[in-house]
Amino acid sequence: MSAPAPFEPTPKQGQYLAFIYYYTKLNRRPPAEADFRDYFGVTPPTVHNMILTLHARGFISREPGRSRSIQLRIERERIPDLE
Prior knowledge:
This protein is mostly helical and 83 residues long. It contains three helices and two strands. A two-stranded antiparallel sheet has the order 1-2.
């Protein structure tokens, strides 16, 4: 009996994960919600809801109330390239 396929992010979630990966790699710190807003051109509630979704699905960890605390919990191979 084979193991089930890993739970994969949606295309939009993948872009947010890719942004976290590359932003952290380039800036040596995780992005703030404002960085997501600037890059994706979306509203603050849109960013916040996506962060909550990524956390709930286990793709990231974070400390609520602490800025720039996002950490990826998904293997690099499962993160798409940033478009």
